[in-house]
Structures are given as structure tokens and as C-alpha cells.
Write a structure and sequence with these properties.
The protein is mostly helical. It has one domain. Helix content is 62%, strand content 0%.
Length: 87
């Protein structure tokens, strides 16, 4: 990826790129390495500003999992107690 950017942009030039241009650079650089999962993550991050909350949110409450605060505290305290005992 670094070599691709060095050849296209150069070392001394400073440029500002749009999100579509950045997405294109990422897809070109990672095509050679076969890291499509990373490309998808970066593209999704670049697209976040274009999406509304209703599109990102879970559509069905059946898919939502919630934990009580007391459960979280009990889990955290038992987890750190086990880590302390292991030392």
C-alpha cells in the first residue's frame, strides 16, 4: 500500500482526497494482497457520514440483547478477581 501511495502521490506533495477517491485507493492497494475484509471495513467507515441512524440501527428488537448493570458489575469483578489470582 505504501509503495502504491508513494508512486501515485509522491513524498513531497500534499493533497486532499475525497471519500470516493480514498475508497478507490484502498481497493487498488488491497486487491494485490487479497485483504478484502479490511477494504470492506474501511469503505464502511468512509460511508458512515452518508447513512442515517435508522439505516444503521437493528430493525427488529428480537435481535437486541441487553444486560443488566448489576450483571455487568458482577462479571467484571469476577473476571478481574480471577486475573489477580492467576498472578
Amino acid at each position: 500500500m505504501q509503495q502504491l501511495l508513494d508512486k501515485t502521490v509522491g513524498h513531497s506533495e500534499t493533497s486532499t482526497y475525497s471519500k470516493p477517491q480514498l475508497k478507490r485507493f484502498m481497493s487498488l492497494g488491497f486487491e494485490q494482497e487479497g485483504s478484502q475484509a479490511e477494504v470492506k471495513i474501511i469503505e464502511s467507515v468512509l460511508e458512515l457520514g452518508e447513512k442515517s441512524v435508522s439505516v444503521i440501527m437493528v430493525s427488529s428488537m428480537k435481535l437486541v440483547l441487553s444486560l443488566s448493570l448489576s450483571f455487568c458489575f458482577r462479571f467484571a469483578s469476577s473476571f478481574f478477581k480471577k486475573k489477580k489470582d492467576d498472578c
